[in-house]
Structure formats: structure tokens, C-alpha cells
Amino acid sequence: MSKIVSNYTTPRLFNADGNLAKDWYVFFYFNKKRYRYKLGINYFKTVKEREAEGRAIIAALTIKLNSGWNPETKKTEGHQDITIVDAIAEILSIKKSYITVRSFKTYYDQTNLFKKWLTLNRYDHLYTHNFTDTHARKYFDWLLTDKHYCGKTYNGHLTCLRTFFNAMVDRGMIKQSPLIGFKPARQDSGKNVAYTPEDETKLIKFMQADDFGFYFATRVVRYCFLRRSELIRLQVKHIRWQNKTIIIPSENSKSRIQDSVTIPKSLEKLFEKSGILGMDSDTYLFGKNFKPSSERMKRIDDLSDKQRSVNRLNGIRPECTFYSWKHTGVVDLYNHTKDAYIVMRQCRHSDIKMTMIYLRSLGCGVNEQVREW
To answer: Residue 12 belongs to what H/E stretch?
Structure first.
């Protein structure tokens, strides 16, 4: 006979005497009424797997009952009943309506890994208010010890889940986030690599002869510091030729804030040579094969793949990438102006501290007074 605890009994596993042909389930009594929960246990094909799943279901139901859950009303006093997995799916669905496709993919991938871990550890049955900081700590320890994530990747997952748990708090799914007090991991910085003047001279000569469209794309990144995702969304209507600026609409920007950058004189002749200024306003500057098109480039990694191929053909060190053109431009602009605020403006950074960290990672910011010491 199950032990009576308050108005419910301790959940127990019915294993049909080990017979896998019959249904297994976990049961308990609440207010003298019997309740049975299978929760997918019979999908498992071995006794060992069903027993393990049974223990997980028992643990989950016990936590729920101890938290004040009433199986008759399906409610828990003071809480909204929703599993952690369903809550994540609901928040993700809401976010999909207003974030970029790229941001959605990042959120999806990171929360999907979390859900897989929950299932692996039999926590997927837990309600949001039963998921504690202890569970969360186990997950983030797993990212470090089993997945061997570096600090930057670890911190990306921490930021993602913080966003989701805060959204749950806002919607009354939990009272407070289980990630309060979690600190970011230490991460390496300063891995930004610029092309040397010799590299750039060699690559310019090659790209001009090989593919003008791709060469033009590298110049826009080199002088205007656009991200790849912004570059492939760049249309003629975003060019303000009279003011010599490029508008980056909020829907194309990582920060979701509309901003603009200056087209330097070094880039003017290329814009004129490209012929895009006279094209239809909805024309994308870099469509298929890096040519102007009415359709956007389908695959953003085409830019990186092309650069990798060009670099390999020219004997450029592998740590240089397509994004290294931005780093190259930043170094050049800073050396030309010696003004971090000008760099900050062209980079569209929101904080000068961010710019200073970026410059130092590139070896800029040499103090001339120290040099004369």
C-alpha cells in the first residue's frame, strides 16, 4: 500500500511484471482517486529504458504534487501550468513574428540543444516553476564539460536562455528566472585578423581580374563595415548618393535600429563603375554570383566560401576571412584619423568602450606618448 502524504500518495510505477507487451504507467492517489500517467513510457522497447523513464516520471510528478499541483483541476496554486519545453516553444513562436530570420535560427538552434538536454536527463516533463537554478547549473556545466564549449559560445547560450526565462517571467509562467546570479564565462578576445598591405595588394589585383562583383562586395565591407547579412540585403534604394551615405534599415540591422554609414571617396568610383546607381530602386547590389539582381542572394556563406577560395589560390593565411576586410578597413581608418569616435560612428557601435576593445584587439591604439618614453 502506498504511503499517504497529505491528500495524495507517493507516485509509483506499474510495470506489468516486466511484460513489455502491456502498458506501463505511473500512478498515485489524490483525494482517494486514482490517477495514471503514461507520458510516453511505452515508446521505450526495453525493461531498463522503461524503468529509467518511470523513475523520471515519478520524480517529475512528485515535484509537481509537492508544489501544490492538483490533478483534478490541472492547476498549481499560484502558478501557470506549462512544461519548460512547451514554454520555450511558445516564446520562440512569439519571437519569430518580429526578429530576423538569422536571429530566429540562432535562438532555435540554442533552445533546441537545451530541449535535447532536458529530454536526455528526463527533465522535459517538468513544469516551468519546478525548473530550478540547480537544474540550470547542471545544463551549463554540461556545456563546458561535455560539449567543451569555449567562453564565447557558452555566453551566447547563457544570453539566449536568459532572454527566454525573462520572457516567461513577463508572461507569468514563472515568478523569477532560474538564471539569476549566473555569471558569464571567461572568453578569449582579440582573434580579429586584418589583411596586411601586401596581402591586400595581391588580392585586389587577383579579384579585379577574377570577379568584379565580388571585388566590389569586399570594398563595400572594407570601407563601410557592413555585416554579411546587411550586405546581401543592400538595395539601390538604400544608397543616398547625394549625401554619399548608405542607409541600413532597422529590419536589416543586427541592433534593429536604423542607421547610416558614410561612403568614402575611395569607394565613389567603384559605385559609379558598377552601374547600380541607375538601376531600379529594388535591385539588390549583390545577388546571385555577386551581381546586381532583383532577387536577394540565397546563401550568405557564398561570400565566405568565395573568399576562402580566393585566399587559398593566393597563398593567404587561413585565419583571414571575408570579415577580415572589415578589420582591415577599421585599422586603416584609425591609422588615418587617430580618432576612435570616427571609427565608432562608421562601425555603428553604441558604446565607445566597444570600439576601444575592438581597436586594441587589432593592435591599434598605440599611445604616442608612451612611444616617446
So the answer is: strand 12-14
Q: Which three cell numbers stand for residue 143?
A: 556545456
Rounded to 10 degrees, what is the CA torsion of 248, 250, 256, 261? 20
Residue listed under C-alpha cell 580618432: 339
The DSSP bridge partners found for residue 235 are 284
> To 5 degrees, how large is the angle CA 347–CA 351–CA 356?
75
Task: Give helix then strand counts, H and E, for the chain.
Answer: 14, 10
Average pLDDT over residues 278-287: 95
| pTM above threshold 0.85 | no
338 sits in the region (left: phi over 0; alpha: psi -120 to 50; else beta) called left
Is it the case that residue 267 has pLDDT exceeding 50? yes
| Tally of CB atoms within 10 A around 290 | 21
How far apart are the C-alpha atoms of 337 and 240, rounded to whole Å? 24
Distance, first Cα to last Cα, the chain:
86
Q: Which position has the grid cell 546586381?
A: 292
Instruction: Report the amino acid identity of residue 333.
Output: L
The closest of 108, 143, 139 to 126, measured between CA atoms, is: 139
DSSP 189: -
The span from the CA of 330 to the CA of 333, in Å, is: 5
pLDDT at 93 over 50: yes
Helix intervals (H) in 121-196: 133-145, 151-170
Asked whether residue 9 carries a pLDDT value surpassing 60, the answer given is yes
Retrieve residue 260's grid coordinates: 547610416
8 A C-beta contact, residue 268 and residue 244 = yes
Burial readout 226-260 (b: 16 or more C-beta within 10 A, e: otherwise): bbbebbbbbbbebbeeeeebbbbbeebbeeeeeee
Separation of alpha carbons 37 and 58, rounded Å: 10
Beta bridge partners of 204: none
Q: Which residue do the cell numbers 500512478 mark?
A: 27
Residues 6+ apart with CB under 8 A from 299: none
Distance, in Å, from the CA atom of 34 to the CA atom of 28, rounded to the nearest integer, reads: 6
| CA atoms 246, 252, 254, 258: torsion sign | positive
